[in-house]
Amino acid sequence: DGGITQSPKYLFRKEGQNVTLSCEQNLNHDAMYWYRQDPGQGLRLIYYSQIVNDFQKGDIAEGYSVSREKKESFPLTVTSAQKNPTAFYLCASTDYQGTNEKLFFGSGTQLSVL
Amino acid sequence: QKEVEQNSGPLSVPEGAIASLNCTYSDRGSQSFFWYRQYSGKSPELIMFIYSNGDKEDGRFTAQLNKASQYVSLLIRDSQPSDSATYLCAEEKTARQLTFGSGTQLTVLP
User: Fold this and answer.
1) How far apart are CA B99 and CA B47, in angstroms?
2) Which of A84, B79, B95, B96 is 20 to 30 A from A55 via CA?
3) Are the Cβ atoms of A40 and B43 closer than 8 angstroms?
């Protein structure tokens, strides 16, 4: 079945540690996104990528980094510079037509700080 | 002012009633709007999208857009307990980028 796979489902970070969240899609989508969701809040855009080897900062990129070496993969690294990383992280993708009605979400990763 | 504002609720309605969820937006240039349903701990799923002024119906759901007043709403007819979730309103800022509201928590009471 086609879809977006995020892993791990739960992740714990120690002080000063970088952690990487995985996002893989087999939908052949060009555009991929990372969103952060805090309790009782909507989704905020961290980074997005419209094509391989290219990505753009979203509204809250500070303390995060991404790469897009393959079309299928868009990993997110939460660096030690992100002082409040506890949140629910969602990866999403859509096709080149840019139609948001075809935006697919992964199942999310809950990141907590130890 | 937030770009997309929603009443956080919680909104409670009895089973079988109509649930009305509202959203206002600040950018007059926004063209497209989306309603997502999100169960606790799960990812959002698209319920409806609307581009044109007026109503759009899909089963028990009706989206309404009023660009002059800058609001978009979602009506859920014959509400069921399974409709209990958080409903997120989103506007399309630019192609392929959405700005989300903070969501309205809906509870349908059996």
Assistant:
1) 16
2) A84
3) no
